[in-house]
Amino acid sequence: MNIGILGGTFNPVHLGHLYMAEEAMKNLKLDHVIFMPNYIPPHKENSSVSAAERVKMLHLALSDHPDFSVSTFEVEKTGISYTYETVEELHRRHPLDTFFFIIGEDSYVNFWKWKNPEGILKYVEVAVIERTGFPKEASSKTDELFRQNHKKAFRILSETVDISSTDIRIRLKEGKDAYELLPRKVAEYIKEKKLYLCSPWTFQQLQTYVKEHVKPMRYVHIEGVVEAALLLSELYGGNRDAIALAALCHDMLKDHEVSFLLELIHRYGEMPVDDGNSPQILHAQAGAIYLEHVCCIRNEEVLNAVRYHTTGRAQMSLTEKIIFIADYIEKGRNFPGVENLRKLAGENLDQAVLAALSGTIKHLESLNKPVAAVSRSAMDYYERVLQERTKHEQ
Ligand SMILES: [Fe+2]
Ligand SMILES: [Fe+2]
Questions:
Q1: What pLDDT, in 10s, does the model give residues 152-165?
Q2: CA of 255 to the centre of ligand 1 (A)
């Protein structure tokens, strides 16, 4: 028998996989195609979906195709399985069959880098589903390897189906629809089991990330902000968990390159906050985006507290004000006037916000640095609010 083997993580299996198998079957007159999911090491990203679920989805996807089947050989073996070991084993078990290893053009290009590629070629034929957009030179090293081993890849020309499991996972994580790229039963299963949805990082996960991605001195500052914010929350109330989370994450991207921040901001369809080109405040905007889209934190209060912690804004929520002030007065700060601001923060939060805003604006102006428009309107707003409050009290 001629048997095709299609390997991959199938995380999840999609219509592109089925198309590859069908094309190979038709072109090479295969009797059967085996889908062989790889084992994914537990520490690998996106392993939130278990091997059993990946296999289950494959069974669902192939249920209407009597000539396709699933092999759990690699998944059950656990640990990294090398293709050369798998094909050797297949040959040992079925010495009379001819196996065709089905790969996409992108895998073919890198085939020469695989572990023991000669070992693979000893036991199987290779079928390549061609993809447009790959220049001939890209595969020259693999072509050479095949020549040396007196082999020729079977090339299957077909209409490109450009579907990737990674894109599907990203779409689902962002709450977008990806179901038209999946076999119907797989789509229903993913929906029912809520697979690939974004699950919020825990406080511990965020803490680990922050610790690993900011300079040690910055982490000391962050701990100071958490402490100051919780003290303010004792005085003024608010959701302590949200406040601690926002304080922990407010500077999470402060030590990243500006290019990384800009890329992140653009990737999620925003324009960088315009303060007349100071990169200083981008970490706040990018931090909020990262928290929402990568860490899956959907608490608006936390996101806004991070987003506006440098500039402030009019009509800040209690959490926003607390983080804004805590960032100014945490115990590591020692600029002139910080003691007064600490005292004021304990007495009247809005007045402390106004004092901090006007202090910063004056400071930036004295250095001839740009001031964000949102900070100026915040200052106007809090001036007005406090004036009206005083009038009211008189
Ligand atoms: Fe900051
Ligand atoms: Fe800070």
A1: 889 988 776 778 88
A2: 10
